[in-house]
Specification:
three-stranded antiparallel beta sheet; five-stranded antiparallel beta sheet; single chain; 290 residues
Amino acid sequence: MNDIYENFDPIPTDIFIQHKTAVAYTPLYHFHEGYEIFLFLDGNVNYYIEQNCYHLQRGNMLIIRPDEFHRAICLSTEVYERLVINIKTPYFNLLKSPIVNLQQCFHDHPKGCNNIALLHEHEIQDFMMLAHKLQSSYNASNVTQSFLAYSYLVELLSKTNCFYLGQSRQNPENLMPALVAETMRYIEDHLSEPISHTDIAENLFHNSTYINRKFKEATGLTIKQYIIHKRLSLAQQLLADSVSPQIVCQQSGFIDYSNFCRSFTRHFGCPPTKYKVLSDKTGVTETLQA
């Protein structure tokens, strides 16, 4: 990997839907500036979300919020088919209602836990049909189709909440190596503090080289790269809440403010000061692509 900033994957439009069929594909641990609904259809795949790893079966649906790192690993050259729906956070926030919370299923669980449900075949077909209707309406340019797209999106999110808040939630075996999960938890618990390989090794009672090798096998990132990305993800969230860049630098674990600004700009395409201004002026946070 030549660029450690490759794991931020910008969403190109407010709603982005892809029905993908491809051969083996293994991205790095990455995150988006929005929410993701992932429906697995075919293949031989392990899916990682934060400190958990699941071997997928047809009908597994995963819900991923903006602060959750994830990746899929194809275990063979079989066809890998999935339906992926991404919704940018500012757009999703416009759907907030005092009657029903369409974001509930994304936030009613600890980070990286209980993200997976299992749909029956008729639920898979219904959901895919609804997603394709949403995609067609959203891509159309006339006003009537815009109304339809909104109604399809609300229906799709309502169904997703029902899957997770009803009886379809699944608790499959966690295949994440225990050492990698413990390393992630240590980093999460100490993200605002200085973290060294020595600190991790001493707390987990393993050789630092061995820990880093196992960590990269699971995530595609070194521990150092993972820490940087975790801190940048946290910084993005704090700036969206209108915390000053200087305070964000401290709270996200960056020691040097100049280094923080350089890292943030390279990652998100604008300096933290401009990111905050955009958020203050618009009422929503706008993520600029690098």
